[in-house]
């Protein structure tokens, strides 16, 4: 049984794939935070800005097997489009709590490329086409190589230099969005300055928030 908070067709808003037409499938649940505000201060990740509780989001629900969820995802891709390979991004919460080999295989059978945005603390199943790791605080990574490392900046317990020698193809710094915590957000200039001083890192802005799409 797969528990999906929401699934929708959009453009990827962040990182190396920014601007690419994508199906986003957000799984419910996370291993670093319950999702409840009452638990935020004691969570292993305290700055998450995402609602991943339940299955009541747009196109969310419970899916009994991999084929049913794969078909649900495929139904969200534009039927008329033969211009690009269908692309699905699994996120959360923490998608690797649920994403498994049967679901990846079912999506590949339907012609999809499969991407994952994970906190990197769980071992991924084989077959993922694009693996993006976003470290959270002092939580240890079990994924130390992949396509993209996207670090929310700044994090006191996760400085960029801690990750710069890992085996990723792309390294991105993304300014922390502090709006959910109702704090002043002055991080864009600091993130830009760090990237300019350390050109291994590229700046990632949240295009979907700047352009106003989900």
Could you characterize what this model shows?
With 214 residues, the protein is of the alpha/beta class. The chain has a single domain (2-211), classed as TIM Barrel (Alpha-Beta Barrel). Helices cover 16% and strands 26% of the residues. It has four helices and nine strands; from the N terminus they run βββαβαββββαβα. It has a nine-stranded mixed β-sheet. Strand 4 (87-91), helix 2 (101-109) and strand 5 (113-118) form a beta-alpha-beta unit. It is globular. 36% of the residues are buried.
In sequence order, what are the helices and strands, one letter per element? EEEHEHEEEEHEH
CATH topology: TIM Barrel
Tally the beta strands.
9
Our estimate of the beta-strand percent is 25-35%
Contiguous helical run count: 4
Unreliable stretches:
180-184
Structural class from helices and strands? alpha/beta
Helical coverage, percent range = 10-25%
Report the C-alpha radius of gyration, rounded: 17 Å
CATH class membership? Alpha Beta
**Any idea how many domains?**
1
Kindly state the mean pLDDT as a whole number? Answer: 92
Gap between N and C termini = 26 Å
The CATH homologous superfamily is termed: Aldolase class I
CATH architecture name: Alpha-Beta Barrel
Label the overall shape.
Answer: globular
User: In order across it, which strands form the biggest sheet?
Assistant: 3-1-2-4-5-6-7-8-9
């Amino acid at each position: 049984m797969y528990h999906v908070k929401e699934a929708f067709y959009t453009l990827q808003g962040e990182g190396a794939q920014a601007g690419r037409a994508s199906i986003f499938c957000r799984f419910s649940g996370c291993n670093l935070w319950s999702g409840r505000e009452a638990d935020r201060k004691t969570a292993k990740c305290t700055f998450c800005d995402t609602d991943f509780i339940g299955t009541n989001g747009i196109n969310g629900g419970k899916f009994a097997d991999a084929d049913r969820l794969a078909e649900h995802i495929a139904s969200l891709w534009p039927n008329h489009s033969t211009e690009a390979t269908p692309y699905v991004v699994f996120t959360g919460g923490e998608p690797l709590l649920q994403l498994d080999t049967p679901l990846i295989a079912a999506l590949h059978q339907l012609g999809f490329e499969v991407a994952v945005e994970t906190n990197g603390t769980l071992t991924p199943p084989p077959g993922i086409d694009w693996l993006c790791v976003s470290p959270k605080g002092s939580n240890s990574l079990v994924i130390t190589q992949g396509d993209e490392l996207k670090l929310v900046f700044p994090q006191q317990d996760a400085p960029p230099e801690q990750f710069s020698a890992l085996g990723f193809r792309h390294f991105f710094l993304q300014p922390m969005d502090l709006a959910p915590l109702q704090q002043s957000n002055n991080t864009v200039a600091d993130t830009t300055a760090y990237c300019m001083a350390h050109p291994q890192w590229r700046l990632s802005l949240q295009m979907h928030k700047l352009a106003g799409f989900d």
